[in-house]
TrEMBL record:
<dbReference type="InterPro" id="IPR023404">
    <property type="entry name" value="rSAM_horseshoe"/>
</dbReference>
<dbReference type="InterPro" id="IPR007197">
    <property type="entry name" value="rSAM"/>
</dbReference>
<feature type="domain" description="Radical SAM core">
    <location>
        <begin position="260"/>
        <end position="498"/>
    </location>
</feature>
<dbReference type="Pfam" id="PF19864">
    <property type="entry name" value="Radical_SAM_N2"/>
</dbReference>
<protein>
    <submittedName>
        <fullName>Radical SAM family uncharacterized protein</fullName>
    </submittedName>
</protein>
<dbReference type="GO" id="GO:0003824">
    <property type="term" value="F:catalytic activity"/>
</dbReference>
<dbReference type="InterPro" id="IPR045784">
    <property type="entry name" value="Radical_SAM_N2"/>
</dbReference>
<dbReference type="Pfam" id="PF04055">
    <property type="entry name" value="Radical_SAM"/>
</dbReference>
<dbReference type="InterPro" id="IPR006638">
    <property type="entry name" value="Elp3/MiaA/NifB-like_rSAM"/>
</dbReference>
<dbReference type="GO" id="GO:0051536">
    <property type="term" value="F:iron-sulfur cluster binding"/>
</dbReference>
<dbReference type="InterPro" id="IPR023862">
    <property type="entry name" value="CHP03960_rSAM"/>
</dbReference>
<dbReference type="InterPro" id="IPR058240">
    <property type="entry name" value="rSAM_sf"/>
</dbReference>
């Protein structure tokens, strides 16, 4: 039975909201299929505004992978701003997809990709607008299966009551397996209804269905155990790992936004995973092992992606792009191919010790210099040993001198505040480093017209990392150190005026810490904060610390715990953590030992270039490191003038 578009009703509301173009759809790369010609139907959501959600690489890849299947339909939906939300409620317009403006409730699957836990209130808004019961237990066969993915899904316990299932790890093969299960279940006449479908998903041992697991607590509030409540589901659920990225060259047809977005470029993930071993970095830990795309596949993806989209920037993405075994040849080859166009190359945050003169020259070959960001993370040598960021002050100065000498006039340095064992002195060394950068940069560039931006983020302990046991500092401690740092930066006016200072205060970080390491009891806090108006908590203008603190105070005492219990309390080795039944491949004993090593300031090497140190991922997940070099080069494009690039 066909599902009607809600656009006629939506269209009447758009003149009354800001940025209406973001709700219209019809982008280059968008796909609209006939509803009745498909069997399995997905609504994919990035739970943030269109301008943030559309460029998201994960959603774009799954959107394309699914729509390549002839009998599968995938459409996108994003969080709507509060002005449109109010009008939609007032006029009975449900949460809709931007592709064909179909109601989300009509789909088989509602998949949400969480890059950060601060998107949880937006999930509740979307469910509410869609007419889908907030609680999984209240849903019927008429409701879609609500599926969480993304990095935050490695601990979905705080939203366990609101989702039906979660996928850990890579999604390309997972969504196709889920689609196959739904296809077969439907072909059989949907036996057993919703519960049977969820059971079939759980039996894969790589899809977590919270309703099939019970949590028992100890009198002091800690978890006693998490166990299956039926015999035919696994005790532990394993992450998915997509091997051979060359076999998955997506996105082939990138979405080109109609409205301004945070990134407007053709992005290629040149490798997945990272074994540098930064102890705070959840992304690096949960995406192991390292799997590189070959230089030839990257070159072909860039060629086809630019020809399709017309973008004039190529982003070579990964957690540490300069570590690719063929990054030099890749950058020089691409720079050569697009030398006569206005296409520029960019790398995301670049490791200080991996940036060199050759890379600098290739990234600026055509005269366009995209931003350069380096992430020392810690201000002092001591704290960098604690977090296993093996970069010296000399490395940083040498790197920025290379950048300034090659024509860059601004660099950005990213640090964190609130790291385990951090002192005031560790943070104040950031000011010394920034002053040194400006002094060395002015000398290298031969001008005072250079700038450095110091950007500070708050440390948040994350599941499946060595710091998952760490306590957080209070917002008062964090904000006090940030004030001292600002004063120290400006203590020398001649240098301070060349240094920008941006920071996130301690309050949002503490709430993110609550959500990242919370258990099922935190779900009631999320719901209370949402009922009090919580939306877009990742945006400073919408985030309210007092709303979250009040919600915790109203809900958590009933469980015998409080906000501090989840955030500023250090965990013990034997404590059962909320995510222990979810297997990232990392051995918990190894993580604990690395946590102990951090307090001894012991640095761990990268297993790409040294012997295996038994983190557990490769044997547990039956995977292996896949790196080059392949020995191949990028060949010249013929003819390069066919490239459709805007002037």
């Amino acid at each position: 039975m066909s599902v009607n578009s809600v656009f006629p009703q939506l269209e009447q509301l758009l003149p009354r909201v800001s940025k209406p173009i973001q709700y219209v759809g019809g982008e280059l790369g968008a796909v609209v299929k006939d509803w009745d010609d498909t069997v399995v139907r997905w609504a994919l959501m990035y739970p943030d505004a269109y301008e943030v959600g559309l460029p998201n690489q994960g959603v774009q890849i799954l959107y394309e992978v699914l729509n390549e299947q002839p009998d599968v339909l995938a459409e996108r939906t994003y969080a709507v701003w509060p002005d449109l939300e109010a009008l939609m409620k007032e006029n009975g317009v449900p949460q809709f997809t931007v592709d064909a403006h179909r109601p989300v409730k009509a789909f088989d699957m509602f998949g949400i990709s969480f890059a950060t836990e601060l998107g949880y209130t937006n999930l509740l808004s979307a469910l509410d607008l869609a007419g889908i019961p907030l609680l999984s237990a209240d849903r019927t066969d008429d409701d879609p299966v609500v599926l969480a993915g993304g990095h935050a899904a490695f601990n979905p316990e705080p939203i366990a009551d609101f989702i039906d299932a979660a996928v850990l790890g890579d999604g390309e093969e997972a969504v196709l397996e889920i689609t196959g299960i739904i296809r077969e279940w439907k072909a059989e006449g949907s036996p057993g209804g919703r519960d049977e479908l969820l059971l079939r998903l759980a039996r894969t041992e790589s899809i977590y269905v919270p309703r099939f697991y019970d949590v028992d607590y100890l009198p002091d509030g800690r978890i006693q155990r998490v166990v299956p409540n039926r015999p035919d589901v696994p005790f532990r659920v394993s992450k998915r790992t997509t091997m051979d990225l060359d076999a998955w060259p997506y996105p082939k047809k990138p979405l080109v936004p109609l409205a301004e977005t945070v990134h407007e470029r053709y992005a290629v993930e040149i490798f997945r995973g990272c074994t540098r071993g930064c102890r705070f970095c959840q992304a690096g830990m949960i995406t192991r092992p390292v799997r590189e795309r070959s230089i030839t596949t990257v070159g072909q993806m860039v060629k086809e992606g630019l020809e399709f989209s017309g973008f004039n920037e190529v982003g070579l993405l990964s957690l540490s792009s300069a570590d690719h075994s063929e990054i030099g040849d890749m950058c020089s080859g691409l720079a050569e191919q697009y030398a006569d166009t206005n296409v520029s190359l960019s790398l995301p945050s670049t490791r200080v010790d991996a940036f060199n003169i050759d890379l600098a020259q290739e990234l600026s070959r055509n005269g366009r210099r995209t931003g350069l960001t380096f992430a020392p993370e810690g201000g002092s040598e001591r704290i960098r040993k604690v977090i296993n960021k093996m970069v010296t002050k000399e490395d940083l100065i040498r790197t920025v001198v290379t950048a300034y000498s090659n024509g860059w006039r601004q660099v950005k340095l990213y640090f964190m505040c609130g790291l385990p064992s951090e002192t005031d002195e560790d943070v104040l060394e950031i000011a010394d480093m920034a002053h040194e950068v400006i002094r060395a940069g002015r000398e290298a560039a031969g001008t005072k017209d250079i700038r450095c931006t110091v950007s500070i983020g708050g440390f948040v302990p994350k599941p499946h990392t060595p710091f998952q046991w760490a306590k957080m500092d209070t917002p008062e401690v964090i904000d006090g150190r940030l004030r001292m740092l600002k004063q120290a930066i400006n203590s020398d006016r001649s240098l301070g005026r060349a240094i920008g200072f941006r920071y996130h205060d301690g309050e949002p970080s503490l709430i993110e810490g609550l959500l990242s390491r919370g258990d099922r009891r935190v779900g009631a806090v999320i719901r209370r904060a949402w009922e009090k108006g919580g939306r877009f908590d990742g945006w400073s203008e919408h985030f309210s610390y007092s709303r979250w603190v009040e919600s915790c105070a109203e809900v958590l005492p009933g469980f015998g715990v409080d906000l501090d219990w989840f955030t500023t309390r250090e965990r013990e080795e034997q404590e059962v953590l909320p995510w222990d039944h979810l297997d990232s491949g990392l051995d918990k004993d190894w993580l604990w030992q690395d946590w102990q090593d951090s307090m001894s300031e012991f640095e761990q090497d990268d297993c790409r270039w040294t012997p295996c140190f038994d983190c557990g991922v490769c044997p547990a997940m039956d995977t292996e490191i896949q790196i080059g070099p392949t020995g191949k080069k990028l060949l010249p494009l013929t003819p390069v003038n066919n490239l459709r690039v805007p002037a």
